[in-house]
Amino acid sequence: MTAAAEQLAHPEVAAVLSAASPAREPWAVAACADALLVQAALARWAGDLEAATRAVSDPRTAVGGPRAGLWRGLIAKDAGRWDEALAALAAVPASSPLLSARARYQEGDLRLRLGQPAAALSALRDATTRLEAAGAGEEERARVLARSATALRRLGRPQEAQAVLGHALALLPPIHAATPITCPAPACSRRACRCCWRWAARTTRWRSRPGH
User: Fold this and answer.
1) What's the confidence (pLDDT) of residue 176?
2) What is the pTM of this model?
3) How many separate helices (H) and strands (E) can be counted in the chain?
4) What is the crossing angle of helices 65-78 and 26-45, to 10°?
5) How far apart are CA 144 and CA 133, in angstroms?
6) Helix, strand or coil for residue 79?
7) Whole-number Å distance between alpha carbons of 39 and 54
8) What is the Cα–Cα distance from 20 to 139, expressed in whole angstroms?
9) Where would I find the H helices in 91-193?
10) Which residue ranges in the chain fall short of pLDDT 70?
């Protein structure tokens, strides 16, 4: 977070953001889009979803491409704007394998919240395939598999859920008290955010169950 705040405070970045007329030079256009997405991320982490929405909805983020679309979906999801979130997440193109995988994961997670386990499972399985193809880290892949297991359980398929959960746990390293937990959420670099603690708590509970 400190590095992100320092990026926004850089004189050139601040000048581009506050300019009265839109930037024209390619570097300035790209820098402005990046800075707005950083603003959105910082506001989201701070719980200020109105500020996050303003930043990510700024027309100057258009050149941010799939990354901007993913952030729009994430923020709309956090704000409870379900239809908007699903539309933004669905618009992240497959030509960006890792970002589209994360968008599909977020879609699956949201559909679970909305009581749509079959649609959630389809999205989560697609996310798993895309993450593997993109060479994503094991913790991120495990997180998606764990949500897939939740979808299977809600569909009344406990044996499949148990098998998928076992696969997720097999991807994770042993947890030790002194081992820091790195959040697998997109763009998260914090050690103490809510998603980090949820991830740590869930992982600890899974590993404490018999047979794991």
Assistant:
1) 52
2) 0.73
3) 11, 0
4) 20
5) 14
6) coil
7) 9
8) 44
9) 97-113, 117-134, 138-154, 158-171
10) 1-25, 27, 175-212
